[in-house]
């Protein structure tokens, strides 16, 4: 099984956005050495606690400080941009880092309605146009517009020898159907979906040639030396989500101490129990067993892991323990 990484560049409470971005770069360097397959960077806008609104900028640095790990967006939120703009940027990355660049595409806003308007004007209209925008990105990447098209003579320069590999990301059957229609690789966000993921993914694989090798499932996981330590580390993430639901938590991921001292209501305790159902937490053998069970359930070859902790060192340690457990290197 291949293991990959989705990095949301979380800011820990008491740290700065610069600290978070530097931690992402250091994590990419480490996981390149550990044998992880991909390192993808998420896109969020004006969301307190997340430091990366522009994946391509961070990927440019990560690519220069890594050797073999594939790098990519998870995802470029395409309705915010023109397809040509995105094709240019990811072609530039693919020119710098040949055969290593992925272009994950998504339709979510990545921020508030006001942010979407600031980025793209009529965002809802762009969402309706999303399938057409996806087509245009791919046509620009492959310089494949019909000869009579207005863009036929337009190149998204620099043009790399190997174009970025486009993927469609989603958390629903609607996204999977679009990936089938466009014959594109598909990433399912298990960690943020309440839908029947295995059924959605299997339907995709049934309809796409070599579907199994064209699917990634994204999972939330925290691994530590002991179960007790992992569960303690995870408390920060649970509290952060509770605070975000209340419109708080803009300072970033709270500390374990803050999570322990927080006066949880009965409703919040029940919310945490539900969150635990969608996250894998434990010692290396426990996390491996649960990841392998999930792999078997989805019947895929690759899992992409997102790990959010208050301590950047704990996050690095989590990925390191998993690499050792799965013998990635």
From TrEMBL:
Q: Which SUPFAM superfamilies match?
A: Bacterial luciferase-like (SSF51679)
Q: Would you identify the family this protein belongs to, as annotated?
A: To bacterial alkanal monooxygenase alpha and beta chains.
Per the UniProt entry, the signal peptide is none
Highest taxon in the source lineage: Bacteria
Which species does the entry assign this protein to?
Oceanobacillus caeni
Q: Entry's PANTHER family?
A: LUCIFERASE-LIKE MONOOXYGENASE
Gene3D superfamilies found in the cross-reference section: Luciferase-like domain
Q: Name one Pfam family in it.
A: Bac_luciferase
Luciferase-like domain segment(s): 1-295
Name of the protein: Luciferase
Listed InterPro entries: Bact_Lucif_Oxidored (IPR050766), CmoO-like (IPR019949), Luciferase-like_dom (IPR011251), Luciferase-like_sf (IPR036661)
């Amino acid at each position: 099984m291949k293991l990959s990484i989705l990095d949301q560049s979380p800011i820990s409470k008491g740290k700065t956005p610069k600290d978070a971005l530097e931690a992402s770069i250091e994590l990419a360097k480490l996981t390149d050495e550990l044998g992880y397959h991909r390192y993808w960077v998420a896109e969020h806008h004006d969301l307190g606690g997340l430091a990366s609104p522009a994946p391509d900028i961070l990927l440019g640095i990560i690519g220069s400080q890594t050797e073999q790990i594939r790098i990519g967006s998870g995802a470029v939120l395409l309705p915010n941009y023109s397809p040509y703009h995105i094709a240019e940027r990811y072609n530039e990355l693919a020119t710098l880092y040949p055969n290593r660049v992925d272009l994950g595409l998504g339709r979510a806003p990545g921020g508030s309605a006001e942010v979407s308007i600031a980025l793209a004007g009529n965002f809802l209209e762009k969402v309706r146009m999303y399938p057409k925008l996806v087509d245009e990105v791919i046509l620009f990447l492959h310089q494949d517009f019909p000869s009579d098209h207005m863009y036929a003579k337009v190149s998204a320069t620099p043009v790399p020898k190997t174009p970025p590999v486009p993927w469609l990301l989603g958390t629903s059957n609607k996204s999977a159907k679009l990936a089938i229609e466009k014959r594109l690789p598909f990433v399912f966000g298990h960690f943020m979906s309440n839908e029947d993921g295995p059924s959605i993914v299997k339907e995709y694989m049934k309809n796409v040639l070599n579907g199994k090798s064209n699917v990634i499932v994204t999972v939330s996981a925290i691994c530590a030396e002991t179960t007790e330590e992992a569960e303690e580390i995870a408390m920060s993430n649970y509290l952060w989500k509770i605070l975000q639901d209340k419109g708080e938590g803009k300072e970033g991921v709270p500390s374990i101490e803050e999570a322990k001292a927080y006066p949880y209501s009965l409703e919040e305790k029940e919310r945490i129990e539900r969150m635990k159902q969608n996250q894998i937490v434990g010692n290396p053998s426990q996390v491996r067993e649960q990841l392998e069970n999930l792999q078997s359930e989805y019947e895929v070859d690759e899992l992409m892991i997102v790990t959010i902790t208050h301590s950047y060192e704990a996050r690095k340690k989590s990925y390191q323990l998993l690499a050792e457990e799965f013998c990635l290197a």
